[in-house]
Amino acid sequence: MRDTILLSLALSALPALAMAEVPKVVTDMPVVQSLTAQVMGDLGTPVVLLEQGANPHSYQMKPSQARALQEAGLLFWVGPEMTPWLSRAIDAAGGKVPQIALLHSDGTHLQSYVDDDDDDHDHDDDHDHDHGHDDHADADGHSHEGLDPHAWLDPHNAGNWVSVIAAALAKADPENAATYEANAKAAQERIDTLDKDLRAELTPVKDRPFVVYHAAYGYFAAHYGLQDEGSVAFGDATDPGAAHLSALRADLKAKGVVCAFPEASHDPRPMQRLIEGTEVRLGQPLDPEGTQITPGPDLYDTLMRTIGGNLSGCLGQ
């Protein structure tokens, strides 16, 4: 209810432009830019702040990007749990940037990070919808508990965000509301097709355990019923301690892990060392945030299909 009220207030704060004018739209990450670009279509191209290959959890904006943020007519971002640097920039701008934190929009399915040391990973259970943020990081800044912000990896959330984006754009630019609505419907149909394709591809490997570099795949694994058994790095991609790696290595055999997947924007050597001397196969790198994919409306579809293809390619051997 609280998030519904906050979103309603945010939408009501968006100015309905007196004359037909497409707002200058800024986004935080390539994934959000992709979804927004699909809704905007030919009406405009949203700016993305995060540069290709950069870590979304710890990024330093350039002065030109800070100016773009201050001049934005509308900002779409995941939320402070994903990009804390942007939260600070919004505060520095005096809170004057009209913005929608998609993670907290009504209809978004939320879940907590899965504890890598928990042996009972039942992905078919109801997920934790706790919206609290205080436990997101421990004393060392490691985000391995609390709210998981990688919610776009559940395609139902992506479809919901498309609706939220369209509603906000229609409020800011009512003369083009019908276009935003039509584009959103087309984007949702594309996401539905993607979801069906991925489910068909991944169902045969649902019982094949795997580990990943970075704790980002909880939504994807839960949605498709996959056996994600842990990660080398924590949710914000910070380096783990020796005890965590030792426990994870023990899990490789205990849980029958089949594949280990490095990440596109990170050094693969920690994953290679983890599985050295075992029968675990090294899969193709995953890119959950799309930082290695060319930005644009096709990025979300490409990101999801690549993750699905890389998982099934290794697990299905």
Automatic annotation (TrEMBL):
The record's listing under Gene3D superfamilies reads: Nitrogenase molybdenum iron protein domain
Q: Where is the composition biased (Basic and acidic residues)?
A: 124-151
Which keywords does UniProt give here?
Answer: Ion transport, Signal, Transport, Zinc, Zinc transport
- Ranges of compositional bias, category Acidic residues: 114-123
Q: Where is this region: Disordered?
A: 111-151
Entry-linked InterPro entries: Bact_metal-bind_prot9, ZnuA-like
- State the Pfam families in the record: ZnuA
Q: Which SUPFAM superfamilies match?
A: Helical backbone' metal receptor (SSF53807)
GO biological process terms, alphabetically, are: zinc ion transport
Signal sequence bounds = 1-18
Gene Ontology MF terms in the entry = metal ion binding
* Xref: PANTHER family: HIGH-AFFINITY ZINC UPTAKE SYSTEM PROTEIN ZNUA, HIGH-AFFINITY ZINC UPTAKE SYSTEM PROTEIN ZNUA-RELATED
Q: What is this protein called?
A: High-affinity zinc uptake system protein ZnuA
